Amino acid sequence: MSRGRIVALSSMSLLLPACPAAVPGATPAPAAAPAAAPTTCTTMYTVVSGDSWFAISKKTGVSQSSLYSANGTTASSPLFPGMQLCLPAGATVTTVTGTTAPPAGQLPVNLAAFPTQGPCWFIDSWQAPRGGGRLHEGVDIMAKAGQYVYAVQDGTLSKQTLDRAGSLSGNAWWLTGTDGSYFFYAHLSAFAPDLKVGSKVVAGQIIGYVGRTGNASGAHLHFEVHPRGGAAVNPTPIVRAVDGCRNTTPPPQPSGTLPPTPNTVAPAGSGTATTAPATPAPVPGTTAPTPVVPTNTAPTPPAPGAAWQFISPKTAYDSSWNGGSMAPFSRQIVKVSGLAGVPSGTAGVLVRLTVSGASSSGYLVTYSCETGAPVVSQLSFREGGGAVGTSMVRVVKGQICVMSSAVAKVKVEVLAAQSASGVGLQAVTATRVLDTRSTARLTPGSQIQIANSLLGVPAGAQALSVAVTFVNPDAAGIFSMGFCGQGLWTTALNADPVSSFAMTMRVNPSGWCITSSVATDVIIDVTGVWAGATKVSTVDPLRIFDSRSSGGVSQTDAPVQVAGLGGVPAGASTALLAITLVTGSVGTSVFAYPCAEGPISGTVVAAVANRVSTAVVPVRLSGGQVCFRSINPADVIVDVVGAG
Fold first, then answer.
1. pTM recorded for the entire structure
2. Which of 133, 210, 249, 612 is the most exposed place for a label (fewest CB within 10 A)?
């Protein structure tokens, strides 16, 4: 396969790494830095379900631009119920809370020790939806079962719960500090010996062990912070300030010795050691007004490598079968066993997801029904618009589950399934196979054929993963793509000056043909070849990166660890990533590439200003990592769905 060039998109132009090719008549938009938040805030507003920046502006009698400036944010920044916003001067609404926020950079609570022993990792999942209408009020620190859990301040162990059927927290401690602040530790495998309610502890003292008791799908510590005994606050910046995930050595203990290993310890008040929890029941999603929210998926054992067998696409679910649209945050069980070509007992499927007619902007997620809905995104969509993409899903008992965050028409088609024989996945340097800007614009009713020789299809390949980009369409319309001379697959084409989607499609001797109902330029880059021996397996959706908590991604490399996290094998060289791009006042392109090779060796996700766009793409890893770089500042959220 010949080496091509990557397309890099901004809101007003389409740029190639070595050879800029601007959209005719357009000028590049300058990068825009986010507005700085004020150092103090005298009036706060608590976000409620259904709020938007526009709605809050109307409620409070201030402009949206002043809200953005007061909070150092943009129109595309997500809102969560319970989030507190700073109101600018002149707000008149009577429903605000008259609290005073601490100066910027000052934390409501300071920790004297990190909550767990390393190695570990964590992300900001504050206020992410949970089952039963709950919102996440802590931070989940992912670590191996049995690692030590530490007191974060000097204080008293004020409450304890034991794991039992139906328990959410499992084995848990409450630690109360000298100022009345308390800290909640959940899902412990066991408690440290000789501790009970009323015990005095010091910062860094071992009080228990990481586990997965209660409603936990994998080993981790759920940790909450309640300043002065009040409501929980986002603990992520508080924990990050003393981040000890790289520290594997326990601090000196008051007794002078480390406690015994957890498998020899029984919880206080019981005569036996704790037992592993029952498999948690599937939990339906709950309301969340943001198109992409952080996840709480805990680590799972790495899956063995798998081969994939592609089939003629089979529709496993279409919301038109039962009323026309999916209800928001309702779980839809989709049966995939029994479809023609899907092996009995398959452990995973590759699916094509199509969304149309959405009542509001939102996201779609596919997941194993036994885990409950992870709050990640595999496809983002706009109000009233359409979106298409692919994802890899673990199959349990012949079923997968699907959830949409908004009322929308949803279709799920199976493209391939894990099988005893088949092909692997090779993530490749993005190779340009079509760019109508340098040939002839695709016109209504015309057809372009792309031969296998141009696609670069190697012997034994069953499918290709591609990025399809549209530039300056005359209007919204319909785009069709598929085998020449056969029925083509169709999808909606929006009127944005630049838009794109990621797709995996089978190959056959006749090559591919494309048509459009409106005139547009089309660019197609091959990003992955389904051939060879690199076996890739499903991974329960796992958030591995969210730049919203770290200041966004720019033209500086942002390395992200993939291998060894959650169900990703430690030696993984290829990953299937759901990359979500959240743009602000200017559009941009984000490159994902092996860190050792630079952006020219990767793939790209692009969006115009004030958009949320998700693409599931194969990437090669370098030392277990992938790097990201953006032409203009933007936020990038990364979820892994497959690896090998």
1. 0.58
2. 249
